[in-house]
Amino acid sequence: MFSFSDQNDLFARRCVWVNGPVIVGAGPSGLAVGACLKEQGIPCVVLERADCIASLWQKRTYDRLKLHLPKQFCQLPKLPFPQHFPEYPTKKQFIDYLESYANHFGIKPQFNESVESAKYDEACRLWRIKTVSVQGSVRSEIEYICQWIVVATGENAERVVPEIDGLGDFHGEIIHACEYKSGEKYSGKKVLVVGCGNSGMEVSLDLVNHNAKPSMVSRSSVHVLPREIFGRSTFELAMMMMKWLPVWIVDKILLLLTWFILGNTESYGLKRPSIGPLELKNTYGKTPVLDVGALEKIRAGDIEVVPGIKKFSKNMVELVNGEELAIDSVVLATGYCSNVPIWLKEAEFFSKAGYPKTPFPNGWKGNTGLYAVGFTKRGLSGASSDAMKIAQDISKVWKEDLKQKKQKVPTHRRCISTF
Ligand SMILES: Cc1cc2nc3c(=O)[nH]c(=O)nc-3n(C[C@H](O)[C@H](O)[C@H](O)COP(=O)(O)OP(=O)(O)OC[C@H]3O[C@@H](n4cnc5c(N)ncnc54)[C@H](O)[C@@H]3O)c2cc1C
Ligand SMILES: NC(=O)c1ccc[n+]([C@@H]2O[C@H](COP(=O)([O-])OP(=O)(O)OC[C@H]3O[C@@H](n4cnc5c(N)ncnc54)[C@H](OP(=O)(O)O)[C@@H]3O)[C@@H](O)[C@H]2O)c1
């Protein structure tokens, strides 16, 4: 990595040539690509807007979080989880694993550097990536120039905050699920949890466990599946069946088994979508809820399931069925979105919503050295599989380039001619 700056202009942007790919994001996906590249002997620069790796896990998740899928589906390439880890590692164990993963492969991200724009320069056939970092009152800008860019900013980069009538008039506390840590401070309070995805369900469960009174909004439909069926992970069982059976049959089997284990969830106000859980996930990317105890609390009446919201007022919420609830606080478990459209100046590979347009399994490679990791709606296992393909692809070009340079240019001139 070489850097240049114009000493005459205090405010000039520093310009850095990167000999290798730039990875944007130091979450599990970015680390996985970094590790696979290191294994191939390819240097890279990892840019991270936060001050730590895996900022989603370290800063934007609740305390009781555990991985929902068994550990063998969540470990990153080239370094398995320690043997003593439980079947479903805790958030802390997962973060410890990621820290040791980064150390093991010598990945040292550039922290506090937020990528503000990335554009392919047709004239020089290189990517120009601009970052901003603010430390105290000092703001600095850097431009990285490289041949390859790997987008690893995640499917959950930004919180989704819906516009709901009267939300601004509500006098109580309103937070997003990414700010929720524990239900401790909500003891005795009436809390409206908006959304019934995995976050909404688990926040509601945590609130009950801390003696709060949650009402959970389910405005449309949701598939709730048990985390395990006959002692085996539901996910693992589904993956096994998918090897021999078409998706629609696997869905029917899953729903039948779910009915035996959980009963009719519709009777608790949780309407089921008309298409099966795997088909829904494959077609619309909507993740089914893997129940870790919320359903029992719903059955017992500790979590009240309520329909969509009409409007908020000072200390009340009015629901679409006309019912009014007095509430103290609101937790918006309304999901997340990609931030790629904000900073990546490209419209061919990524959609307007910030996901690769090409469906799985081909959404990892674009044109002109552009790659995407962790955008397949397949969680950590999808990210690992993308990472290995990306490193292999870059390595082919890298090795070919190296061979040609060795043949053509005397060693002492190699770097200069590259720039
Ligand atoms: C509450 C919760 C629980 C989850 N549990 C599971 C689970 O159990 N199993 C599973 O497989 N998946 C789970 N997921 C999905 C999870 O997001 C991914 O599996 C995993 O974190 C994806 O890793 P990633 O690196 O792609 O994205 P992230 O973990 O989101 O990492 C992206 C990184 O990019 C950085 N970044 C973003 N924008 C910029 C920018 N402009 N410039 C520089 N850096 C930037 C972010 O700060 C972040 O550190 C969960 C998600 C949530 C929200
Ligand atoms: N332990 C774990 O593994 C774990 C835990 C938590 C989250 N996650 C993962 O993290 C990702 C995000 O999950 P998430 O639960 O945060 O988000 P999500 O799955 O996108 O769910 C968002 C929920 O908010 C609802 N919603 C959005 N806008 C609304 C509005 N205006 N009014 C009422 N409801 C509204 C949605 O309803 P509609 O369906 O009607 O739009 C949906 O129920 C998923 O991949 C999930 O699997 C994993």
From TrEMBL:
<keyword id="KW-0560">Oxidoreductase</keyword>
<protein>
    <recommendedName>
        <fullName>Flavin-containing monooxygenase</fullName>
        <ecNumber>1.-.-.-</ecNumber>
    </recommendedName>
</protein>
<dbReference type="GO" id="GO:0050660">
    <property type="term" value="F:flavin adenine dinucleotide binding"/>
</dbReference>
<keyword id="KW-0285">Flavoprotein</keyword>
<dbReference type="GO" id="GO:0004499">
    <property type="term" value="F:N,N-dimethylaniline monooxygenase activity"/>
</dbReference>
<dbReference type="InterPro" id="IPR050982">
    <property type="entry name" value="Auxin_biosynth/cation_transpt"/>
</dbReference>
<dbReference type="InterPro" id="IPR036188">
    <property type="entry name" value="FAD/NAD-bd_sf"/>
</dbReference>
<keyword id="KW-0073">Auxin biosynthesis</keyword>
<feature type="transmembrane region" description="Helical">
    <location>
        <begin position="244"/>
        <end position="262"/>
    </location>
</feature>
<keyword id="KW-0812">Transmembrane</keyword>
<comment type="similarity">
    <text>Belongs to the FMO family.</text>
</comment>
<dbReference type="GO" id="GO:0103075">
    <property type="term" value="F:indole-3-pyruvate monooxygenase activity"/>
</dbReference>
<dbReference type="Pfam" id="PF00743">
    <property type="entry name" value="FMO-like"/>
</dbReference>
<comment type="pathway">
    <text>Plant hormone metabolism; auxin biosynthesis.</text>
</comment>
<dbReference type="GO" id="GO:0050661">
    <property type="term" value="F:NADP binding"/>
</dbReference>
<keyword id="KW-0472">Membrane</keyword>
<keyword id="KW-0521">NADP</keyword>
<keyword id="KW-0503">Monooxygenase</keyword>
<dbReference type="InterPro" id="IPR020946">
    <property type="entry name" value="Flavin_mOase-like"/>
</dbReference>
<keyword id="KW-1133">Transmembrane helix</keyword>
<keyword id="KW-0274">FAD</keyword>
<dbReference type="GO" id="GO:0009851">
    <property type="term" value="P:auxin biosynthetic process"/>
</dbReference>
